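note to self — DONT lose this again. spent like an hour looking for the file last time. sequence + predicted structure for the chain T wanted, 50 res
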Amino acid sequence: MLHEALPVGADPLPLALVFNMSHTTAIHYASIAQNLLDDQIEQTTDDEDA
């Protein structure tokens, strides 16, 4: 499910619809995906600054 959350930009609505999960669970997975995306951006920025 997390692999589906990353390409949609951590939007919980597609997760809830595709996997037929509750909005609470979809928001949880979307939050994890957003954290991963934020970490990836930070690492890219840190690499460019080095």
